[in-house]
Amino acid sequence: MASLGLDLEPVFDKDGVRLTVDDAIATVTLTNPAKRNPQGPALWRALIEVGRLLPGSVRVVVLRGEGQSFSAGLDRQMLTPDGIPGEPSFIGLARSDDAELDATIAAYQEAFTWWRRNDLVSIAAVQGHAIGAGFQLALACDLRVVADDVQFAMRETSLGLVPDLAGTYPLVGLVGYARALEICATGRFVHAEEAVSTGLANVAVPGAQLDDAVRDLADALLAAPRDAVVETKALLRGAADRTYDAQRAAERAAQARRLRDLAGLSD
Predict the structure, then answer these.
(1) Phi-psi category of 160—alpha, beta or left, where left has phi over 0 and alpha has psi -120 to 50?
(2) For the chain, how many helices (H) and strands (E)?
């Protein structure tokens, strides 16, 4: 059985993020359970650095949060007039010119984008609260395994804001426009049963079985040859942006590469 490497020496451990690597599996853990793993610029920079540090041998990345909750979302100190020391406050951001504000938010978003790389399959192991930025971080992953106590919610609108951490695209893709709008505009909780039935989560399990379920999924993902999984993920990710005929052409090209590779004829 695959190991999540939780007892290994960390490759990275800073600003509420820890990375361990066990052969083909990397585990990224949010490590501030006392505050339900809040998020802010320092944590986002740490996540970006983790993405850069991943060895080429890694095929599966597991994202988890210590404690009772995956992530309760934004560090509320960011919303205060003074903000977080050393970081832009919301008032400071509002006073920025358009280019500076856009660049700042784009930098934050980078913490949420690398999980979709074609050479990796990312799994979010989600328990308890996954609110706002926490919800969006779970959405950044390819797959979600949830505990039966999970509570997803997109609370940005209640603060007069919008979800801006790359979460709206995968949310609409998973549950459709109408349900995504309702979830975001109302800020209501989405529990485990609904998450599975709508495609937001792949499977829900009792909380005590969450790590085992993630290990089982990681094992299954590692069973197939890496290049076949990489090509398949690229095909599926690009499907929505292609016409039917273009997708068929992409399938043919991918299969040609695989056949030549298996026959030892690739460049």
Answers:
(1) left
(2) 10, 12
SS3 for 220?
Answer: helix
Answer yes or no: do 153 and 232 share one domain: no
pTM tops 0.85, yes or no: yes
- Residue 7 placed within a domain: no
> How far, in Å, CA of 94 to CA of 82, rounded?
13
Helix H segments across 88-225?
90-94, 98-109, 133-140, 168-175, 177-186, 192-197, 210-223
Q: Domain check: are 30 and 45 in the same one? A: yes
Following DSSP, what letter does each residue of 61-105 receive, concatenated? Answer: EEEEESSS-SB-EE-GGGGSSS-STTS--HHHHHTS-HHHHHHHH
Residue 249 domain-assigned? yes
Structural domain span for residue 21: 12-223
Q: What is the Cα Rg of the chain in Å? A: 19
Q: How far apart are CA 80 and CA 98, in angstroms?
A: 22
What is the total count of domains within the chain? 2
pLDDT, one tens digit per residue, over 145-173 is 999 999 999 999 999 999 999 999 999 99
On whether residue 246 sits in a domain, the answer given is yes
